[in-house]
Design goal:
Layout lengths: L4 E13 L5 E13 L3 E5 L6 H8 L8 E10 L2 E2 L5 H7 L4 E4 L3 H4 L6 H12 L4 H14 L5 H5 L8 H13 L5 E5 L7 H18 L2 E6 L2 H7 L2 E6 L2 E7 H6 L4 H8 L39 H5 L5 E2 L5 E2 L20
Helix pairs in contact: 4-5, 5-7, 7-8
The chain binds adenosine-5'-triphosphate, iron/sulfur cluster and magnesium ion.
Length: 338
């Protein structure tokens, strides 16, 4: 791990039990890293394994039949997968915090916001209740809540979606984590609030140097917020690139399809290109390249053998046979297909 590196996930594999004797992998061979102060995107369609990856990092699969069966998660020099449950509890919330996909299900409906925040702060600090209360108000203010005293006395159902999401971010940031994992933090919000929450996260990175793993299916959000991106498909990373390159020169046919289907001003939704089909169920993964049933470039090899994730230039990686010297083919105008 380089000095600047905060998190490195290596060859992670998480399986779910589907019967007494059989388990299947929801994610496998997942390798990625996040540097200090970096906002990294993890993108892909619904069901491709984004949330399973994030829950595996912070080892929160206990309530499911999920089990990490391979790999390592290096965080500040320790492999999180080797820590005891107690050591992991110390890291969770304090050094790595998570904003979950559904804010309303993550806030306790029967506790007022101040009590939830105070409890979270006291769990990881030596603060007295009064100090924790003051810190809670300060944290609510820092996430742009205009009247923290009033909001802190509310129950979750009394808050709007945007306000709940701010409270979730305040809760996550209250112990100044080094890494914030935000799983679809803005999906349930309207566009204006979405932009405010993204600004807020960028502000947190700028002022605190917090690294952020931003999980989303929305490439528009990635373009605005992230510096590097990992694209997932069917439990695998299929492309890795700096954000500007991903958009100007996407390499994997799946990424190309995702980018082509981003709504554009002046274009009717019906006329947008789309990727036919859907992400396969984990119990029915196709052999070979997992994308081959949906890929318009699929060749014979694609259904027979899975390609490796290979470097195609200094900063970009891709998992596609077209990127190997054997199968790189020429397009009609004679250029190598990207
Ligand atoms: N508890 C579980 N038991 C069995 N399979 C699961 C479980 N949780 C997730 N999966 C499966 O693992 C795969 C990846 O799911 P995951 O929730 O990580 O997708 P995602 O990329 O986060 O999707 P979304 O964008 O809809 O949130 C899916 O096929 C899903 O059905
Ligand atoms: S390996 Fe084949 S099927 Fe898979 S993305 Fe590349 S061309 Fe398409
Ligand atoms: Mg998810």
């Amino acid at each position: 791990m380089s000095e600047n590196n905060l998190l490195k996930v290596e060859n992670l594999r998480t399986e779910f039990k589907i019967s007494r004797k059989k388990s299947v992998a929801a994610v496998s061979d997942i390798t990625f890293e996040i540097n200090k102060g970096e906002i990294v995107g993890l993108v892909g369609e619904s069901g491709c394994g984004k949330s399973v990856t994030s829950l595996s990092i912070i080892r929160l699969l206990n309530d499911t039949s999920g089990e990490i069966t391979h790999g390592s998660v290096w965080f500040k020099g320790s492999n999180l997968l080797k820590l005891s449950d107690e050591e992991m509890r110390q890291i969770r919330g304090k050094e790595i915090a998570m904003i979950f996909q559904e804010p309303m299900t993550s806030l306790n409906p029967v506790l007022r916001i101040d009590n939830q925040l105070i409890e979270a702060i006291q769990l990881h600090t030596e603060y007295t209740k009064q100090e924790a209360r003051e810190h809670a108000l300060e944290t609510l203010r820092s996430v742009g809540i205009p009247d923290p005293e009033r909001v802190s006395r509310c129950y979750p159902h009394q808050l709007s979606g945007g306000m709940s999401q701010r409270v979730m971010i305040a809760m996550a940031m209250s112990c100044y984590p080094d890494l914030l994992i935000a799983d679809e933090p803005t999906t349930a919000l309207d566009v204006t609030i979405q932009a405010q929450i993204l600004d807020l996260m960028q502000g947190i990175r700028n002022t605190r140097g917090t690294s952020i793993l931003l999980i989303t299916h929305d490439l528009g959000i990635v373009a605005e917020t992230c510096s590097r991106v990992y694209v997932m498909y069917a439990g695998r990373i299929i492309e890795e690139a700096p954000v500007d390159i991903l958009f100007s020169d996407p390499s994997h046919p799946y990424t190309q399809g995702l980018i082509a289907s981003i709504p554009k001003l002046g274009l009717e939704a019906e006329s947008l290109p789309f990727i036919p089909g859907s992400v396969p169920d984990i119990t029915m993964m196709p052999g070979g390249c997992r994308f081959h049933p949906r890929c318009r470039y699929a060749m014979e090899i694609c259904s027979q053998k899975e390609p490796e994730l290979i470097s195609i230039n200094e900063s970009q990686k891709c998992r596609c046979w077209l990127k190997t010297s054997e199968y790189s083919i020429k397009t009609e105008n004679g250029e190598s297909r990207k």
